[in-house]
Specification:
Helix 6 runs parallel beside helix 14. By secondary structure, the chain is an all-alpha fold. Helix content is 83%, strand content 0%. It has one domain (2-353).
Length: 368
């Protein structure tokens, strides 16, 4: 699996490079450039947190071990509350009692629930128009409802039993239910809290970046146990190399599948922008969210539901997993696609027949 994926990415690099040499006439060269340009934002979101994770791991172990003895839920599952590339993987691995669960929480859980919790919800609320909030809330809710399907698929590939997957994900399921309740009854307050948490994370990331850089430049370590910044940068560089090929490859797939997916979208009731958004979200969340304003109402819900699990699979998450835990690449893809497609199908099932009525009556926006 890993070798096949890497060959696909390598083909994407070749495709992008050839197009760039001949003037970016097909757009693949531009996508290759975009992959390289993602290095900066990726480093800013990852490196500082990676530097600080050893410090947090010691604190987390002391706090979480009593809870582990009480519930037998591995402390690693708390790492899954963070995004995979924002400290979730490192924290889960460092505090895990069971190394297998540490890898599962850090890759599968952190790449689905963690990214939704830390990134998609607070960022979505910042970039979306207020009139799109009701569609966004419904999509996130549908994605959280079907999240267990993705977590189950990934866990089974990791070799865990159904009971163990359900037991270990108890914390994640409880937090998911709280998020759904918050989106239903107190969306503004929930988003304010998540925004405050995201801001606190930003401060921690910046401090970690500063401390790591000072240690590298002067040899002075203000905080003992920091992860070396140069090692963290190597991880980012590896992700960037994969993104050089993943973005052109995703662009190629989007083009060759445009007609069949366009036909399918027409049958379901999605406009062209909505269908394209599903491809874009599989590569990166932010550009998909900015496209939401041009989607039809059903498309807004379906796209948001889909990215709860499937967000950023083709770019950052495959790149990250290939570098740190390549043996879990199959589990990552299975979890993201299972969760993403089941969420999209649920959204279509729940809301397709309501859309014509909602266009006229405004029922969808009255709930929020």
């Amino acid at each position: 699996m890993e070798r096949m994926i890497m060959y696909v990415m390598a083909a994407g690099v070749v495709l992008g490079a050839i197009d760039r040499i001949f003037g970016n006439k097909k757009g693949y060269g531009k996508r290759m450039e975009d992959g390289f340009m993602y290095l900066g934002p990726t480093a800013l979101s990852m490196v500082g947190m990676m530097c600080m994770i050893p410090v947090f791991s010691k604190m987390a172990e002391q706090l979480l071990m009593p809870l582990y003895h009480l519930t037998k839920i591995d402390p690693a599952m708390f790492g899954g509350l963070l995004a995979i590339d924002m400290g979730g993987y490192q924290l889960a691995k460092d505090i895990a009692v069971d190394a297998g669960l540490g890898a599962y929480a850090g890759i599968v859980v952190a790449a689905t629930f963690g990214c939704t919790f830390i990134f998609t919800i607070p960022v979505g609320m910042r970039v979306l128009e207020k009139e799109d909030y009701p569609f966004f809330f419904r999509g996130i809710t549908a994605g959280l409802v079907t999240l267990p399907a993705g977590l189950m698929a990934g866990g089974l590939i990791c070799g865990f039993s159904v009971f163990r997957i359900l037991h270990q994900n108890g914390l994640i399921l409880i937090v998911s239910l709280l998020l759904m309740a918050g989106l239903k009854w107190q969306p503004e307050r929930l988003v304010r809290w998540l925004g405050m948490f995201a801001s606190a994370m930003q401060v921690v990331i910046t401090i970690g970046l500063m401390l790591g850089a000072v240690r590298y430049m002067t040899g002075i370590s203000v905080v003992p146990g920091l992860y070396p910044i140069e090692e963290a940068m190597k991880v980012v560089a590896a992700i960037g190399i994969v993104m050089l090929g993943s973005l052109p490859a995703a662009e190629f797939l989007q083009r060759i599948l445009k007609k069949p997916f366009g036909w399918l979208g027409g049958k379901i009731g999605l406009n062209e922008v909505s269908v394209a958004g599903l491809f874009v979200g599989t590569v990166s969340v932010l550009p998909q969210l900015t496209m939401l304003k041009n989607m039809d109402r059903l498309g807004k819900i379906v796209n948001t539901a889909y990215i709860v699990s499937a967000a950023s699979m083709f770019a950052a998450h495959i790149g990250f997993t290939m570098n740190v835990q390549p043996d879990l690449l199959g589990a990552l893809i299975a979890a993201k696609l299972t969760g993403g497609f089941t969420a999209a199908l649920l959204a279509v099932f729940l809301f397709k027949n309501k859309m014509p009525e909602n266009r006229d009556s405004g029922i969808l926006s009255e709930d929020h």
